[in-house]
Amino acid sequence: MAKDISKIINPASIAVVGATNRKGSVGLAVFSNLIYGGYQGVLFPINPKARSIQGVKAYPRLVDVPDPVDLVVIVVPPEAAIDTLNQAGQIGAKGAVVITAGVAAVALATLFSGVVTAAVAVHAETSERTALALFARPVRPIAFLAGKAGGAFLAAAIPGALLAGLHLGLVALIGEHGFWEIEIGGCGHAHHHEDPVSVVGLEQVAFGHVLALAQAGTLTCLTAVLAVRLPPAGAIPTAFAVFAGGHLLAAAGHAAPGLLPALGLCNPDEALQFSTSALGFADLGLGLLHLALYALASLLVGLAWFARREAA
Fold first, then answer.
1. Cα separation, 272 vs 182, whole angstroms
2. How far apart are the C-alpha atoms of 25 and 41, rounded to whole Å?
3. In whole angstroms, what is the distance from residue 285 CA to residue 246 CA?
4. Strand partners for 96
5. 221 near 295, Cβ under 8 Å?
6. Tens digit of pLDDT per residue, the chain (312 long)?
7. What is the fold of 6-98?
8. b vs e for 90-113, b when ≥16 Cβ sit within 10 Å of the residue's Cβ?
9. What are the residue ranges spanned by the domains of the chain?
10. Rounded CA Rg of the chain
11. Closest listed residue to residue 101, CA positions, set 111, 93, 109
12. Which residue from 1, 184, 180, 213 is spatially nearest to 94, judged by alpha carbons?
């Protein structure tokens, strides 16, 4: 049965939750584009701290809008987006566009924290003492590298997992309200229909988050090893170059998953957005196995560097 999405692609009214007058904000950019981009319908900016946005009367909450709303554009953090979706269901909105942090945002936040922490921690100890003095205690080089990388990753993964949980809760709420979610060019759109269809469902997003966190752990291990030979100013950019290089090669169609940990199955955000087939348990398992082997190979390289250092 064909789905009627006429109210989504040609809405008579749009509410922008998170619209603001603050320069440089996403809320201002979205609302301004609607005003000056030729939209002919009715606009309702939602902001509890403003009386008007770009000269248009603002409302504190979505449920305070007195007229029917066809489409809701949500430009707020995940924790606020959950309540907004509840309100969208209450007022009978036909669809919602959610512009908020997803798999890529969580991955980048975890990756940045893990990489920086590992580089600083390893370099701080190895630069102050020689390898011989460092391992005069009963601490093996493999335990040192794995411990530093593991500690840095855990410190980054805990807040990352909390953000992932918020994102998963938002996706679950979209399904609970009978919305169906699709991904177009990296922007999530949720449309309401009596027969929900989920192109990127809760399970898919969960798999993406698991792979993204594991990818951050692998690159944290790589950074810990690089920090044995390089200062943080060298190890950190090198790790991010590996991450970016892998994504660029994958986008160019180079499927060489053994080269960089961001390729192929280990490119979760692109896999969710642009893959022709859904991520399954086999993809998840292969991706985690590849990342684990890459992390182990990095640690073995670090052991070889330590062996050469001791020999010298």
1. 10
2. 23
3. 20
4. 72, 190
5. yes
6. 445 667 777 899 999 999 999 887 878 888 998 988 888 899 999 999 899 999 999 999 999 999 999 999 888 876 677 788 889 888 988 888 877 656 667 777 888 898 999 999 888 877 765 544 555 555 677 788 888 888 898 888 888 888 778 777 766 766 565 554 434 333 444 444 443 333 456 777 788 788 888 888 888 999 999 998 889 999 999 988 888 877 777 666 665 545 565 555 555 555 554 444 566 787 778 788 878 888 888 888 888 887 776 665
7. Rossmann fold (3.40.50)
8. eeebbbbbbbbbbbbbbbbbbbbb
9. 6-98, 103-176+200-311
10. 24
11. 109
12. 180
What b-and-e string marks burial along 204-226, b requiring 16 or more CB atoms within 10 Å of the CB? bbbbbbbbbbbbbbbbbbbbbbb
Apex 77 CA angle, 72 and 82, nearest 5: 60
At residue 56, what is the residue type?
V
